[in-house]
Amino acid sequence: MPADAAPTAATAMLDASNPFAAPSTLAYGLPDFAAVRTEHFRPAIAAGMAAQRAEWEAVATDEAVPDVRNTLEAIERSGTLLRRVMAVFHTLASSVGGDEIHAIESEVAPQLAAHGDAFWLDRRLYGRLESLANATALLDLDAETEWLLQTYRKNFRRAGIRLGDAQHERLRELNGRLVSLETEFSQRVVKAMEAGAVVVDDPAQLAGLDAGTVAGLARNAAERAGLTLAVPGAAHLITLQLPTQQPLLARLTDRGLRARLLAASTMRGTGVDAASDTRATLLEIARLRAERARLLGYAHHAAYVAEDGTASTTEAVSEMLARLAAPAARNAEREAAELRQVLANDPAAGTGAALVASDWAYYAERLRKERFSVDDAVLRPYLELDRVLADGVFFAANRLYGLTFRERPDLAGYADGVRVWEVLEEDGTGLGLFVGDCYARAGKRGGAWMHNLVDQSHLLGERPVVVNNLNLTAPPPGEPTLLTWDEVRTCFHEFGHALHALFSDVRYPSLSGTSVPRDFVEYPSQVNEMWMENPAVVARFARHHVTGEPLPAEVLERVLSVGAHGEGFATTEYLGAALLDQAWHQVTPEHVPTDVADVEIFEREALQRAGVGLELVPPRYRSTYFNHTFGGGYDAGYYSYIWSEVLDADTVEWFKEEATDGDGGLNRRAGGRFRRALLSRGYSQDPMASFRDLRGRDPVIDPLLVRRGLTD
Questions:
Q1: What pLDDT band is residue 44 in, cutting at 50, 70 and 90?
Q2: Which of 33, 350, 478, 497 could join 414 via S-S bond, C-beta 3.0 to 4.6 A?
């Protein structure tokens, strides 16, 4: 719909047979995925936009004096149909995919951008908010409503409301083009992951993998290539995950296959396959974001983004990243020296073999086994997915917050393997729904993430429905899903996001749950990771999937003793991505490269300037598949993971201070305090005020430096 198109009664109507025409009748408003077909989306999205435009028009033309009900609440109530349909559409686009869904996604992205501009560039709506702000002394607003009003006013200004008509027109053009490009980038990244999958014809090259993993790779080949499993070992396919490092690099003994796998990972989006080449797309995104920032009065896009976070300035972001880069790189160099020695002692590598990037994970794992006697192959039988969820993730939530989880097989998900649990308070009151989508599938984007299907809001009378997404390789039928220690950590991390949404206790939907600044949103999820190593928790979930025997105490002790070992690599690869993100978004339009061949040069020079250009430690994401920053909403904000980790590490110390009877803080008193002071607040106040409510002071960085081994 054009930005200046007026909504009509015809476009606002939606056929009653469309499942989006009425609210879902399922528990907690869970969408009825079984009733939804692809052809339902276009008319529902169009009707949703038209209906919301009509609602905004009613607010803008209301002749009554602006007040909370006829302005703020009316805006917050608007868009019910559009929210309903987009929650389902975004879920299917990211977790199921397919050509039809992607075609609709590409088509409606600019329409939705224009729809947003119709609101944020409407001077009438802004005028009503300004009138309301001028009368706040008389209205005696409660704190959350006052915060909502000021947030709207700030966001209108950041959207460019004060610019002239010609500048508004250019903003509309930029916003529409950018959202199309971001959608295109994300879709190309998925195609690049699929095109980059590594075919292994010789099963001998898979030495180092257990039988279950090998069977999974054979099934991958069968599913992707139409093969049958009648001939065992006919072909195997290693599918890629989103980050640079691929899990199998730590286990494959064949150096050649390791090199092929890492090369396939790092070459994604670089023209190996034309349909998945992302370079021209990312260059235009960077240039247009820089132009938009200049139009809005900012030095660059990174400055625009930082202003809306808890960091406030790019100077603060750059200072923290620079403070961490040098010691992280030094630690990585020390680790490399150790790995070279392990390589030299490996007769299979050959005399005089040089350590290369594809060797790092393999020899780091060998060193970890030698030094700490920790082996993922030993751990995996004790880390079965269902037990990790029920007796780990859910158990910790019960001990901290009194929650219980009841699986609801009567409630269907949107794909095979998606499961739904009802989340209950200690007194049996329903809190919301938790949806688990754990397995990779063709068309699903890589990585792990959380999103909402329904946002909590007292104004709308809605309770949360939350989804956690993982990308685990499904085991053969009848076999258990066995995890690595890092995959267990991911389960706890994503559930921390889920708790942030489930515990939301706010009036207004736009302030609900995880609707906080990007450099704060990772904080609760990172805190939740601590419970996987709590003795009471790990004793319940780390049990052999066949015998039920607990993980031997001496093995667990060795796992927990690893500490900051390997953090030089981990911190450096993370900082590489965070600094790349800043580099792309601290340039002016004139300084964005114009030739796709210059993408690699720009990337290499940026990493070298920042002091993290280590050949052996490629960034967690190279530019060409950096979906967080060019397609996933973390543009100029990837620093937020480490920024949030400062808060997280400090809060872990607080939980330890709240410990009773050696429970490490895993108690209802501490959990209740964390829930009330922080998890329940959403964006209903300054997030740093929530942190200070919990901690009694501003955060300090020292616990993070200790955790990552970055102290002298």
A1: very high
A2: 33
In SS3 terms, 224-260 reads as: HHCCCCCCCCCCEEECCCCCCCCHHHHCCCCHHHHHH
Residue 81 has which token pair?
Answer: 């149909």
For the question of residue 55 being annotated catalytic, the response is no
Cβ atoms of 422 and 405 closer than 8 Å: yes
Q: Which residue, 508, 679, 462, 687, is CA-closest to 146?
A: 508
12: Cβ contacts below 8 Å, ≥ 6 apart: 47, 50, 51, 54
Do residues 677 and 693 lie in contact, with contact meaning Cβ atoms separated by under 8 Å? Answer: yes
Q: What's residue 442's pLDDT?
A: 86
Residue 464 above 50 pLDDT?
yes
pTM of this structure: 0.91
| Count of C-beta atoms within a 10 Å radius of residue 510 | 17
**Beta partners for residue 422, in sequence order:** 406, 433
CB 55 within 8 A of CB 79: yes
Whether the CA torsion 192, 642, 470, 206 is positive or negative: it is positive
Residue with tokens 């004790």: 382
Q: Please, what's the b/e burial string for 423-453 (b: 16 or more CB within 10 A of its CB; e: otherwise)?
A: bbeeeeeebbbbbbbbbbeebbbbbbbbbbb
Question: Distance from CA of residue 645 to its chain's centroid?
Answer: 15
Which of 185, 56, 170, 163 is CA-nearest to residue 109?
185
How would you classify residue 633: left for phi > 0, otherwise alpha for psi between -120 and 50, otherwise beta?
left
- Range of 9-18, 373-382, 420-429 with top mean pLDDT: 420-429
Domain span including residue 410:
381-561+641-707
Q: Is the residue at 516 inside a domain?
A: yes
Options 494, 522, 567, 645, the catalytic residue: 494
Sign of the dihedral through C-alpha 97, 103, 104, 110:
positive
Token readout for 525 is: 């999820």
Alpha helices in 613-709 (DSSP H): 627-630, 640-657, 668-674, 687-695, 702-707
pLDDT digits (tens, 9 = 90+) for 600-633: 999 999 999 999 999 999 999 999 999 999 997 8
Pairing of strands 449-454, 465-472: antiparallel
Residue 520 is part of a domain; what is its CATH number? 1.10.1370.40
| Tokens standing for residue 258 | 């390791």
Query: In the block, which residue shows the tokens 């920032």?
Result: 293
* Contact status, residue 645 vs residue 571, Cβ threshold 8 Å: no
In a domain, 336, yes or no: no
Q: pLDDT tens digits for 89-116? A: 999 999 999 999 999 999 999 999 999 9
Counting the structural domains of the chain, the total is 2
> Helix or strand or coil: residue 381?
helix
Residue 600 lies in a domain: no
Q: How many helices (H) and strands (E) does the chain have?
A: 29, 7
**Among 441, 397, 444, residue whose Cα is nearest residue 421:** 397
Q: What is the dihedral of CA 700, 705, 706, 710, to 10 degrees?
A: -160
In a domain, 205, yes or no: no
Distance CA 241, CA 253 (A): 20
